[in-house]
Amino acid sequence: MLEALGRRSPALSQGIAVLGAGACTEVPLEKLARAADEVVLVDLDRTALLQARAGLPAASLQARVQLLTCDLTGGVSALLQERLRLLPWRKLVQGEASALWDRLAAVLDDCPVPDPPQIEGLPRATFGLAISSLVLSQLFSYPLLDLLDTVQQRAARHLGTQERHRRYQEAAQHFRLRVIAAHLHLLRDLVEPGGLIVLLSDVRGFLFKEGEMSQGGPVRRELPLVPYAFFDLVRQTFTVLAERRWEWLSDLPTAERPGRGYEVVGYLAVVPAT
Q1: For residue 106, which of 52, 53, 171, 160 has the smallest C-alpha distance?
Q2: CA torsion sign, 233 to 181 to 29 to 239?
Q3: Of 75, 77, 68, 64, residue with least CA distance to 19
Q4: 140-152: buried (b, 16+ CB within 10 Å) or exposed (e) per residue?
Q5: Rounded Cα distance, 176 and 108, in Å
Q6: Which residue in 74, 132, 172, 186 has a CA-CA distance of 20 to 30 Å to 112?
């Protein structure tokens, strides 16, 4: 993010938007505020946003920070839930599992994904820098988890069989890609032509056990968090100036449970002038 500040043209807007800001634990908010005339923090968790702004050391810096509480998908979860409520659950729970997952695949395919989402209070082509901070995978994973929670409540005996249902897996993957594309397009539209984008996303999770070693590191069970096509979508949408990858550990292993960590990719990119 600091590299983006150094590479931002003086001719660009000095405004900065941070999507998925939360409490700014991964965002150098003070440095951003000092380098901007306005910073707009966007997240669904207003309490975290208030905490982030209150942590700034000076009232003059706090005054530069605006807060916007919203769903960055434009309401995809609500749209999906509306369609799930209309399903004939009594019939589906009594039928074969394949019929249920076929129907849910159709629901995912038919669910609108605003592209780009229209976010009230977030003007387009206004910012010189837009940052997406470790929020991308949440935008599609939470609606899909809500769908599985609904199955747990309405048709629990079929839960788990979705892993063997190819049609549902394809629909879920297509849903992920649509949400990802919409978020990238939102970032693109927020900045002025020639403006900069910083995109941080976890791309792979992993579990590892204490004391297990392989090729000089711990044995790991890895789980992809974004479709592989994500990397192509980024380069199709932006001109990438720099790409970096790193890992962070969220939980250390114990004798009772494995450790948990994530692989993260970070892009610094420019929005091509049209």
Answers
A1: 171
A2: positive
A3: 68
A4: beebbeebeebbe
A5: 10
A6: 132
Question: Which fold would CATH assign to domain 2-270?
Answer: Rossmann fold (3.40.50)
Phi, psi of 164 (to 5 degrees): -100, 5
Residues 6+ apart with CB under 8 A from 235: none
The answer for 156, left when phi > 0, alpha when psi is -120 to 50, beta otherwise, is alpha
Nearest-CA neighbor of 89 among 103, 69, 76, 79?
A: 103
Instruction: Supply the pTM of this predicted model.
Output: 0.93
Strands 127-133 and 239-251 turn out to be unpaired
The predicted-structure confidence for 29-73, as pLDDT tens digits, reads as follows 999 999 999 999 999 999 999 999 999 999 999 999 999 999 999
Amino acid at 118: Q
The values of phi and psi at residue 101, to 5°, are -70, -30
Tell me whether the omega of the peptide bond preceding residue 10 falls within 30 degrees of 0, making it cis.
Answer: no
Longest CA pairwise span in the chain (Å): 64
Burial 44-77 (b: 16+ CB within 10 A, else e): beeebbeebbeebeeeebeebbebbebebbbbbb
Q: Among positive and negative, which fits the CA dihedral 113, 189, 124, 199?
A: positive
CA distance 84 to 78: 10
